[in-house]
Amino acid sequence: MGVENTKGEKTKFAADTSDRSIGDWAKALIVLLIGLTIAHLGVTLFLLTELGTDTFTVFIQGLSVVFGLTVGTVHVIVLCILMVVMLLTTKGYVKPGTVVCAFCGGPIIDLFTWLLGGYIHGESAMAIRIVSMLAGCVILAMGMSIVINSNAGTGPNDLVAVILSDKIEKIEFRWIRVACDLFFVVLGFVLGGTVGAGTIVAVFLTGPLVQFWLPITKKWICLK
Predict the structure, then answer these.
(1) Which residue of 51, 133, 155, 169 is 20 to 30 Å from 122, comparing CA positions?
(2) Is residue 1 one of the residues assigned to a domain?
(3) Are 150 and 223 in contact (CB under 8 A)?
(4) Is residue 12 part of a domain?
(5) Which residues contact 35 (CB under 8 A, 6 or more apart)?
(6) If DSSP states are collapsed to H, E and C, what string results for 113-133?
């Protein structure tokens, strides 16, 4: 799964799911939805603190400034472009769950914002905001690891680090993820995106935390 196994060898994220039955795919997609919900609870906690957006959103903000489009519109366009490029250039990464991740994340964030927005916000005590931001990073990473371990597909923006991790065999996933997040933040900032303290924390915590959770959540999941 793109991290070192017990023999110290780096295994691959790409997995052959051609022998999955409809029932197996249903189970895998349910697991993916659970992971996606957990991940976006983390994203919501992070965003409600108003200490900075997530790394990919900085990039999307920058593009929206350049092209004069809304953040939501640019987000959909970029994800669709990434999916098409990955479909044409890679094999075994873009799956049904990739589409689910691309289009279901927003509504999940809206739901959790409605539920939690009255308790955590920019006017909350700084201690609450910092704890929520850190908890959001941990929860996001756990949910992301569940999505990856479902082998049903993951979000197009997250697939960038996953694919590079498989291609660059000598570097662990966590450092590749850090590099990808740093790239999105720097480019997004140059283009006009907003960077906060929480964004910097997300750059350096997300990759290592996902790698920490991957073997743990893999034990929780029994899928073909």
Answers:
(1) 155
(2) no
(3) yes
(4) no
(5) 143, 144, 145, 146, 147, 148, 149, 150, 217
(6) HHHHCCCCCCCCCHHHHHHHH
Residue count of the chain = 224
Residue 76, both tokens:
């959909």
* Structural domain span for residue 53: 22-220
Kindly report the pTM of this predicted structure.
0.87
User: What CA–CA distance (Å, rounded) separates 136 from 41?
Assistant: 7
Q: Confirm whether 77 is domain-assigned.
A: yes
The per-residue b/e assignment along 10-24, b for 16 or more CB within 10 angstroms, e otherwise, is beebbbebeebeeee
Total domains, the chain: 1
Give CA–CA dist 31/36, Å, rounded.
9
> From CA 135, how far away is CA 151, in angstroms rounded?
25
Structure tokens at 101: 């991740």
DSSP state of 10: B
Q: Hey, CA dihedral for 104, 214, 168, 151, is it positive or negative?
A: negative
Say if 3 falls within a structural domain.
no
pLDDT in tens, 48-100: 999 988 899 899 999 999 999 888 889 889 999 999 999 999 888 999 999 99
